[in-house]
Amino acid sequence: MKVVPSFDGQFIYTSMQARYRSIYGIIFVFRASVSFGWFSVVGVKQSVGVAQLVESRCHGNERLVDAFYETNPLDGKCDQRIHIAARPLTMIYNHETVVRLQEIFTSADMTGINQ
């Protein structure tokens, strides 16, 4: 039986807003935002437990990634704005998990392959 790593997380929060701004006429303003919560990837089970491969450093209500896109911002400094804020991830190499992943993507029957 081949075992693969698994991941868990709290993924997407989205919001969209549309409003009209009138200074020199009617201007349509659009804003969309997306946030990703915590994220975790665990490797295969080993004799000492399960290896933690990737883990976000989010605590409480913090988000791993916050991003938003806005057209015609109210401050008028630009026509479009993209803002992305991210928190760090802890990534740990685990040899046993990499070997198991390699086994999954390697075919046992290589006779039909020509170079």
Q: Could you outline the blueprint of secondary structure elements for this entry?
A:
Blueprint: E1 6-9, E2 12-22, E3 26-36, E4 39-46, E5 49-56, E6 65-71, E7 80-86, E8 89-91, H1 95-104
Antiparallel strand pairs: 1-4, 2-3, 3-6, 4-5, 5-8, 6-7
Description:
With 115 residues, this protein is mainly β. The chain has one domain. It is built from 1 helix and 8 strands, in the order ββββββββα. The strands form 2 sheets. It has a 4-stranded antiparallel β-sheet with strand order 1-4-5-8, with helices on one face. Strands 2-3-6-7 form a 4-stranded antiparallel β-sheet, with no helix packed on it. Strand 2 (12-22) and strand 3 (26-36) form a beta hairpin. The protein is elongated, with a radius of gyration of 23 Å. The chain starts with 5 loop residues before the first strand and ends in an 11-residue tail after the last helix.
Gap between N and C termini? 30 Å
- List segments where confidence is low: pLDDT < 50 over at least 5 consecutive residues: none
What average pLDDT do the residues reach?
77
Percent of residues in beta strands?
A: over 45%
Question: Number of helical runs?
Answer: 1
Indicate the overall shape: elongated
Topology order in helix (H) and strand (E) letters: EEEEEEEEH
Find the count of extended strands (DSSP E, 2+ residues).
Answer: 8
Strand order of the largest sheet: 1-4-5-8
Strand count, sense and closure of the main sheet? Answer: 4 strands, antiparallel
- What is the total number of structural domains? 1
Radius of gyration: 23 Å
Give the helix/strand class: mainly beta
Bin the helical content: under 10%
